[in-house]
């Protein structure tokens, strides 16, 4: 009898201890610890349930009922505390992670096309509209394609025109111009007529300065067919200049020398800044140089797989960076590949 009464008193104490402990709980971790301690398998109230068989028969019902009440009360208190803790955690978060929605937003950094790419794409787009097809050719080339087959034998003084990066593998180099692509394109298409452009990077072993860089893009233009003339070459360049700059811009072909073309010329366009009157960009001359060109040398045609007695062709090499420099008044070619975002962000 007294044992049963003791248990009833003990249940009140268990309840009080649990409720007191719960009052100190502030966060989800300690709440979990409390739950294990006061409602878990080995909690005091659970021990009572497992001992209930040993209680006096007369009091057993009462003890069972009371134990249940205590358990339910603790569960109810837990539920209430859970809610309170969740709200407190949220309230703390709201204070700690306060957002000032009136602040101006941060602008995402947008990527953009490189100025050399813009000029390259402009040239290619216009030439494609004129019926030229893009061919790809490698930047790592053979000495044979870059020089020999372009009519520049080893030890020929013309090799001085291109200071070259050689690889450790004999006969393999970084192309000094896109012209070796002429050989590749011709060999792929001959003896059918060919009309192609070959855009891409070229490399020269240069002492760099404001107008010399060790890498730069070129767009090689090539056409081979029966009866192609220097007039066709001039017409192509004129048409391209009209499309790229303005319909009334003039071009000029200045006699020059390249071993793989005969005759050869430098391509000048009328200064699009001053219209030919003379200004700082054209250094007073009224003309701007944008590339080289000429009629493909018979030897080169033959190396490409064409019979020079039946076929003729023209070729030109245009400099996109050169055009971009003129167009955007860029005074130092080293800006292009210097990777300075302050420069690149302006385009
Ligand atoms: N490959 C020549 C150069 O770099 C340019 C050129 C191309 C000239 C095609 C004539 C014909 O410098």
TrEMBL record:
Residues 64-91 form a coiled coil. It comes from the Bacteria. Mg(2+) binds at residue 262. GO terms for cellular component: cytoplasm. Binds 2 magnesium ions per tetramer. Residues 127-326 form the Aminoacyl-transfer RNA synthetases class-II family profile domain. GO terms for molecular function: ATP binding; magnesium ion binding; phenylalanine-tRNA ligase activity; tRNA binding. It is an enzyme of class 6 (ligase). Its EC number is 6.1.1.20. Belongs to the class-II aminoacyl-tRNA synthetase family. Phe-tRNA synthetase alpha subunit type 1 subfamily. Tetramer of two alpha and two beta subunits. This is Phenylalanine--tRNA ligase alpha subunit. It comes from Longilinea arvoryzae.
């Amino acid at each position: 009898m007294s044992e049963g009464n003791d248990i009833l008193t003990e249940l009140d104490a268990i309840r009080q201890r649990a409720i007191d402990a719960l009052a100190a709980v502030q966060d989800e971790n300690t709440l979990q610890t409390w739950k294990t301690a006061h409602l878990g398998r080995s909690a005091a109230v659970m021990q009572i349930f497992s001992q209930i068989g040993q209680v006096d028969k007369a009091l057993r019902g009462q003890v069972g009922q009371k134990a249940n009440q205590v358990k339910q009360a603790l569960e109810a208190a837990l539920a209430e505390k859970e809610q309170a803790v969740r709200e407190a955690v949220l309230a703390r978060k709201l204070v700690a992670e306060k957002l000032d929605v009136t602040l101006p937003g941060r602008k995402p950094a947008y990527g953009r096309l490189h100025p050399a790419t813009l000029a390259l794409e402009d040239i290619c787009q216009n030439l494609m509209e004129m019926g030229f097809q893009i061919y790809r050719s490698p930047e790592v080339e053979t000495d044979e394609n870059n020089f020999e087959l372009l009519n520049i034998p080893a030890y020929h003084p013309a090799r001085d025109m291109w200071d070259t990066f050689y690889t450790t593998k004999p006969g393999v180099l970084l192309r000094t111009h896109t012209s070796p692509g002429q050989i590749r394109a011709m060999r792929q298409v001959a003896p059918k007529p060919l009309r192609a452009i070959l855009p891409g990077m070229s490399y020269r072993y240069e002492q760099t300065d404001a107008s010399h860089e060790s890498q730069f893009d070129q767009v090689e233009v090539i056409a081979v067919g029966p009866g192609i003339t220097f007039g066709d070459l001039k017409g192509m360049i004129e048409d391209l200049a009209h499309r790229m700059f303005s319909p009334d811009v003039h071009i000029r072909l200045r006699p020059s020398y390249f071993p793989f073309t005969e005759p050869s010329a430098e391509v000048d366009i009328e200064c699009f800044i001053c219209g030919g009157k003379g200004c700082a960009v054209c250094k007073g001359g009224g003309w701007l140089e944008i590339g080289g060109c000429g009629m493909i040398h018979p030897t080169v045609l033959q190396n490409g797989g064409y019979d020079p007695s039946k076929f003729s062709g023209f070729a030109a090499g245009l400099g996109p960076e050169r055009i971009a420099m003129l167009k955007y008044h860029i005074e130092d070619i080293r800006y292009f590949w210097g990777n300075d975002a302050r420069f690149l962000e302006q385009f």
